[in-house]
Amino acid sequence: MMKKDFTDFLAKTYKQITKKTIDAASLYNIFCKLDRITLYIREVLNLYILNPNLSLNECYEIYFKQINSSDNNKNKWQNFSDTEKVILLAVANNITNRFYSNKFAEFSNIKQIQVSRGKIQRALQKLTYNSIITQNDGQTQIIDKDFENWLIKEDILNLEYKD
């Protein structure tokens, strides 16, 4: 897990590039609020660089609203393949972390999604490469906790496949 030395590095790099200082403690606090997701803090910094009239906290608030909007989650969801969707639902709902198991096959059948070993392998690679999921102590986790909570709350596939 990234620590304060990461945000200190970002603050130092920011100063080298912009010749302006940034409050390293505030940057670290925002990083913690964003569940220490490196992509998110970089996006906040991008907003800060592109909007010099805004404070760092204002940039955080803007970005936080963007990533937590229901429309953002729906758009994100629509871009996943069916296999990626069933993997994400299995992880979010603690169904299984073993995607080649009978339990996962049963879960995907209930969700009316046909999966194969090849589809599962490609989906896991894509989700990992795009920083949607990660492995932590042998467990697959969804990186964006707000998206994960949205998945649980919406039970999205049940809504999509209702007759």
- What is the average per-residue confidence, as pLDDT, rounded to a whole number? 86
**Strand fraction:** under 5%
Secondary structure: number of strands = 2
Q: Share of helix among residues?
A: 55-70%
End-to-end gap: 44 Å
Q: Provide the low-confidence segments as ranges.
A: 159-163
Structural class: mainly alpha
Strand order of the largest sheet: 1-2
Task: Let me know the largest β-sheet.
Answer: 2 strands, antiparallel
Rg, please? 19 Å
Q: SSE order in H/E notation?
A: HHHHHHHHEEHH
Total helical elements: 10
Could you say which overall geometry the principal axes of the C-alpha atoms support? elongated
Structure explained in plain terms:
66% of the residues lie in helices and 5% in strands. With 163 residues, it is mostly helical. A two-stranded antiparallel sheet has the order 1-2.
Q: Which key features would you list for this structure?
A:
single chain, 163 residues, mainly alpha, two-stranded antiparallel sheet, 5% strand, elongated
Set out the fold topology.
Layout: H1 4-18, H2 24-33, H3 38-50, H4 56-68, H5 70-78, H6 82-92, H7 102-110, H8 117-129, E1 133-136, E2 139-142, H9 145-154, H10 156-160
Antiparallel strand pairs: 1-2
Helix pairs in contact: 1-2, 3-4
